């Protein structure tokens, strides 16, 4: 049988990668062609993505992919984080460097938006959870700026990369849903929302769906990368979380998933949105998925909290001349940090630390912004009358216990609000490497956890391309069963005293304010 090769471009908040997937019926293997750091830069007070450097990383990755194999690639797919965008002039020029969703420019936007449209009406129309950085808030904050005034077109980040590669503009649906400008029932633009907020929907090029053709590589890209034949780009679930959920190796329908990385996205796959007031109050989102599905989930801070702690300890270590209190050097693995902290040693020490000594609300937007993470965690412990962690190991344990607790809460809430039963929890993404987090999640949920694959987003990206090219057939269950039979997975059984998690949750009780309502 014929083997096909697909390049998955997967850009995450801490690194980008180009991964080649080799696909034949019953076979699926991944090779990482190139990985590069994603480092945002603050300029004159605004936090920006280094979009040109990311694009160069994509070109280098495609070149590495072309060199890796004498066999031609069948197509390329692109997925990245959500909500952010570039503005283009009529001639296609990028008018401003895209702003990072962690930039605080949207701080006052929710209040402004609420004056035009109540949070209830906005949720009923879009089903999207309140996150201060949703594209609607970014656009409302940008109103009156020269770049937006001059803009002819808006491209979400994966669509921008795709446009630069092919010259063909489009708006991929799964990611478009994170703008908070899509109606999840019609899976089309929520025109009344845009009108109420003064957002010009004609800025967005027409919608594309995962599996649609999205153009072919421009000659300049072929020259730059050494790729020879005309090569198509295929739209995939261009929101990384959409691709990661395709990459969940579930074999039964009663599963919950946690897509881990910088964020933990925990919830269920549904076939219709839940737009109830209870769902809004619990701040659940209805992002659109591949094949008509809905990603019913809540955003939890994720490994960002640990990455930021490690960054703070390393800065402190550099200042005091020590190598950090965990000592030694080594790989920091999936935290994405490249400093001197030995993450393995830190996680071992955290595993030995007192369980559930203190927990914080890992859904609290107070943890979104960069800097001072250990201090913010200490403050949260103090505010809730819990002991303040004294060492990096204790802080790490606090973060992982808190993430596990938030995973459990999100899965319980999602099941209750959608009337579904959960029997298995799948963890995919970078957090799969964090065995302590996986075990704590199994313990907190009181359910078996199946961990893997770590590169779920790239796999979901490859699978959607492979199906569009006719290399494989079937719906999500068939794609997932291919993952189940080809990818290494690890199962964690729940251990320990389950009631300890109930008591820890109770300590947070009142602190876990209902985000949507505030
Ligand atoms: C994960 C992710 C989340 C989104 C956040 C910001 O990488 O895409 O789904 O809420 O990043 O875009």
TrEMBL record:
Gene Ontology CC entries for this record: cytosol
Presence of the UniProt keyword Magnesium in the record: no
Keywords: ATP-binding, Disulfide bond, Kinase, Nucleotide-binding, Rhamnose metabolism, Transferase
InterPro entries: ATPase_NBD, FGGY_C, FGGY_N, Rhamnulokinase
Domain Carbohydrate kinase FGGY N-terminal: 8-247
Residue ranges annotated for the Carbohydrate kinase FGGY C-terminal domain, each copy included: 256-469
This protein's record includes keyword Nucleotide-binding: yes
Pfam families: FGGY_C (PF02782), FGGY_N (PF00370)
GO biological process assignments: glycerol metabolic process; rhamnose catabolic process
GO molecular function: ATP binding; glycerol kinase activity; rhamnulokinase activity
Positions of the UniProt region annotated as Disordered: 317-340
Biased composition (Gly residues): 324-333
Gene3D superfamilies: 3.30.420.40
Family according to the record: Belongs to the FGGY kinase family.
Protein name: Carbohydrate kinase, FGGY
Organism: Streptomyces violaceusniger (strain Tu 4113)
């Amino acid at each position: 049988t014929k083997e096909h090769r697909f390049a998955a471009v997967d850009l995450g908040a801490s690194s980008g990668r180009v991964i080649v997937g080799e696909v034949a019926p019953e076979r699926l293997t991944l090779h990482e062609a190139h990985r590069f750091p994603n480092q945002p830069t603050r300029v004159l007070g605004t936090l920006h993505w280094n979009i040109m450097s990311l694009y160069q990383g994509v070109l280098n990755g495609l070149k590495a992919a072309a060199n890796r194999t004498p066999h031609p690639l069948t197509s390329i797919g692109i997925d990245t984080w959500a909500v952010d965008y570039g503005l283009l002039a009529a001639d296609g020029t990028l008018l401003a460097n895209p702003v990072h969703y962690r930039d605080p420019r949207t701080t006052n936007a929710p209040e402004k938006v609420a004056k035009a449209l109540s949070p209830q009406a906005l949720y009923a129309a879009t089903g999207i959870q309140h996150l201060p950085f949703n594209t609607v808030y970014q656009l409302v904050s940008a109103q009156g700026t020269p770049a937006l005034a001059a803009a002819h077109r808006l491209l979400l980040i994966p669509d921008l990369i795709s446009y630069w590669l092919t010259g063909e503009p489009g708006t991929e649906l799964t990611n478009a849903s994170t703008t908070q400008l899509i109606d999840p029932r019609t899976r089309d633009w929520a025109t009344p929302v845009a009108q109420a907020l003064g957002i010009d929907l004609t800025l967005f090029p027409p919608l594309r769906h995962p599996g649609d053709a999205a153009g072919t590589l421009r000659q300049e890209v072929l020259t730059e990368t050494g790729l020879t034949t005309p090569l198509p780009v295929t739209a995939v679930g261009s929101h990384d979380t959409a691709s990661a959920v395709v990459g969940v190796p579930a074999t039964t329908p009663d599963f919950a998933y946690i897509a881990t990385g910088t964020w933990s996205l925990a919830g269920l796959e549904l076939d219709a949105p839940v737009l109830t007031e209870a769902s809004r109050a619990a701040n659940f989102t209805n992002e659109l998925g591949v094949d008509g599905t809905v990603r019913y989930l809540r955003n939890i801070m994720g490994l960002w909290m640990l990455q930021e702690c490690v960054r703070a300890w390393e800065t402190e270590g550099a200042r005091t001349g020590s190598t950090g209190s965990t000592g030694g050097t080594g790989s920091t693995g999936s935290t994405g940090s490249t400093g001197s902290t030995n993450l393995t040693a830190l996680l071992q020490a955290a595993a030995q630390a007192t369980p559930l000594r203190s927990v914080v609300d890992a859904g609290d937007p107070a943890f979104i912004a960069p800097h001072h993470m250990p201090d913010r965690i200490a403050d949260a412990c103090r505010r809730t009358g819990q002991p303040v962690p004294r060492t990096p190991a204790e802080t790490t344990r606090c973060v992982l216990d808190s993430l596990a607790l938030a995973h459990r809460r999100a899965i319980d809430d999602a099941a209750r609000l959608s009337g579904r039963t959960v029997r298995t929890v799948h963890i995919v993404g970078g957090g799969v490497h964090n065995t302590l987090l996986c075990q704590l999640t199994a313990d907190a949920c009181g359910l078996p956890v199946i961990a893997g694959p770590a590169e779920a987003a790239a796999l979901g990206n490859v699978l959607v391309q492979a199906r569009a090219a006719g290399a494989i057939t079937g719906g999500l269950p068939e794609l997932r069963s291919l993952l189940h039979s080809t990818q290494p997975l690890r199962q964690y059984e729940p251990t320990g005293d389950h009631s300890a998690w109930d008591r820890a949750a109770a300590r947070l009780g009142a602190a876990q304010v209902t985000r949507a309502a505030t």
